[in-house]
Design goal:
Strand content: 15-25%
Number of domains: 2
Structural class: alpha+beta
CATH topology of the largest domain: Glutamine Phosphoribosylpyrophosphate, subunit 1, domain 1
Strand order of the largest sheet: 7-8-1-2-9-10
CATH architecture of the largest domain: 4-Layer Sandwich
Largest sheet: 6 strands, antiparallel
Helix content: 25-40%
Shape: elongated
Number of helices: 9
Amino acid sequence: MTFSIVGRDGDAYGVAVASKFLAVGYAVPGARAGVGAIATQAYANLAYRPQGLDLLAGGASSRDVVERLTGADDGRDQRQVGVVSASDAATFTGPACHDWAGGRAGDDYAVQGNILVGEQVVEAMEAAWTASAGSPISQRLLAALRAGDEAGGDRRGRQSAAIVVVRPGAGYGGDDTALDLRVDDHEQPVAELERLAALHELYFGEPDPQALLPLEGEVADEVRSLLARLGHEGGDLDALLDDWAGSANFEMRLRPGRIDPVVLEQLRLGRT
């Protein structure tokens, strides 16, 4: 009753999933920085996540992980799982999963789904992942999820969606979780997940070093004026900007002596 993709892009791993199921993000995705990612679904075996990631951390390939997890599981016929590691990816669909059920895998991705409108869902997801090469992994995963949704997705309808991306040190405060968003119950969960991902990028995205503007001259004057309107005035400009950003949640985009154009636009909008 779910369609998902696990993917690898450089040193980042991620999972994106959608389903006619309450809070699918609770059950399906698992990922560990420097190790890999797993999606467990159909009649999901949640133990696959820690067990599979431990096996990957120990050097097993994705294919080995799938074989070892399902081989030791008496309920394997009702399981579906996708795994991606640093070297390969694999997918498995048990013969008792409800139609349509199946998956596809390449070097750096595995897509799978069950109770779908048809094979076209995983085909569309695979094509979207491949076509988006060069984009950030979060965008690639969301593009694949959107393609699956637009191709018909879960034949029972829509309810929830989730995305998880891990990369060493890429998260808030240096955590390895770069992105972890869930839509637990919504009429258009994939669209809502994309909206949340855009907000996450706004607040926590990495500034483009080439686009940063020196806090000098007219730029500095404008920033100081905008900050004063918001009640932050007097003293060092970097300190004032830091004080505002701490309350407006843009601190991850600050760089001493410079300003991200994204942050400047939020100041112009009067964000508090």
